[in-house]
DNA sequence: CCGGGTCTTGTCCATCGGTACAATGTCAGC
DNA sequence: GCTGACATTGTACCGATGGACAAGACCCGG
């Protein structure tokens, strides 16, 4: 559960951050990969080369990471979140804000520099509007519930996850999937995805 | 700073939520528009007609709102966030989770049902030129052989079929796939397909 | 009231998919 | 010559997946 800061080796700055977490440790990228484990909270400076990849591995390892940038942009914010980061803010944010971030990300939340959040969400929304149109003819022959299952499965979720999301049993998900496969003449979820994203494909 | 729940008039359910916030008030949409003000924390049921518009006005008024859905989807999540909501979760989430959400959104954070978060962020990432920057280099980090496997797998073929097509063992296919998953930071072939198919479908 | 369609769940089982812990051979570069 | 990246394959394990067989609940039209 250690609090750690990761920056270019030898970077002794980060005064605001130090102020917010006096007891934290400062690490270089190498040490980070070696020492960070599940539950640790890491703060990565985006000035660091390969920060994205670092965040990705640390996140998969179960660490909770935030990215601090000297010049925040919505693109970098998204990149960070996509890499698994849970927070994104200006590197020189005031200590109170940093501590606030800490609270948020410690509770499964996401914290992003507010102005950026608007852009991020806005962009995503526009894009998904287009994505929503993809469904259509393929799903015509399916029932209400089957369509719902098909769409969620096509997002890449497992049966268990679909079950949770639709508040039904995994068994029921399988039942619907079976019907979907039969009706669409396909054999598994992979082909379902292909059928929904492109209309083409189909192999012997 | 009142905690309020807004659902269809006369909806007396929401046991889990009640449990989480015993002192909160339940309102109908009309009352909400009249009474909610700055700093109030409102929970809106997405089953409610016009929930999106409601969230939008309340948010602009300075209220902090979360949306609870009976059947959460990434699309609805984005829609909620875009309307100004700060939280999005299943309507029957356990009380501890709801209180956790409360903490997060009270600290300027965003809270979204974890499984959906990945999709939401993923969608957003693809939407804003992140697609161009990273997608093209998705396969860059892979070796010759890994790329070959990735492409065939993305066609929807099984490991056995890939093996036949590339004249290698199924075991070897698994080996390459393992490396691919690790390098791309994904967990299975479904996500690989999504990562690859979304790189060709972009908007003007 | 009855039959059909839909939604739901159950058990059982064969297979697939992903990973852990390996080994072998090749080939480029220091 | 040795090291490291790459390709290949093996055994083993276990969770995920899809199908088989079955059944109860609900609703709607005949």
Query: Domains counted in the coordinates of chain A: how many?
Result: 2
What is the 3D shape of chain A? elongated
Helix content of chain A: 40-55%
- The CATH architecture category of the largest domain in chain A equals 3-Layer(aba) Sandwich
Mean pLDDT of chain A: 78
Runs of chain A in which pLDDT lies below 50 for 5 or more consecutive residues are 130-135, 198-204
Number of strands of chain A: 6
**Helix-strand pattern of chain A:** EHEHEHEHEHEHHHHH
Write the layout of secondary structure elements.
2 copies of one chain form a homodimer.
Chain A (H helix, E strand, L loop, with lengths): L2 E4 L8 H6 L4 E3 L1 H7 L5 E5 L5 H10 L3 E6 L4 H9 L4 E4 L4 H12 L4 E2 L1 H18 L12 H10 L5 H8 L3 H15 L4 H9 L7
Parallel strand pairs in A: 1-2, 1-3, 3-4, 4-5, 5-6
Chain A binds a DNA duplex (30 and 30 nucleotides) through helix 7 and helix 9.
């Amino acid at each position: 559960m250690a609090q750690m800061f990761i920056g270019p080796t030898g970077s002794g700055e980060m005064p605001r951050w130090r102020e917010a977490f006096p007891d934290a440790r400062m690490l270089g990228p190498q040490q980070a990969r070696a020492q960070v484990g599940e539950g640790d909270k890491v703060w990565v400076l985006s000035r660091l080369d390969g920060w994205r990849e670092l965040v990705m591995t640390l996140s998969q390892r179960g660490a909770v990471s935030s990215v601090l940038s000297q010049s925040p942009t919505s693109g970098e914010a998204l990149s960070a979140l996509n890499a698994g980061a849970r927070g994104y803010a200006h590197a020189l944010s005031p200590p109170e804000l940093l501590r606030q971030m800490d609270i948020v990300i410690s509770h499964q939340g996401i914290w992003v520099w507010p102005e950026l959040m608007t852009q991020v969400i806005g962009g995503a929304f526009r894009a998904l509007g287009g994505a929503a149109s993809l469904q259509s003819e393929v799903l015509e022959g399916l029932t209400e519930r089957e369509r719902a299952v098909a769409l969620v499965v096509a997002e890449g979720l497992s049966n268990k996850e679909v079950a949770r999301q639709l508040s039904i049993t995994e068994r029921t998900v399988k039942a619907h999937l079976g019907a979907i496969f039969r009706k669409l003449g396909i054999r598994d979820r992979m082909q379902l995805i292909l059928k929904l994203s492109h209309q083409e494909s189909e192999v012997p």
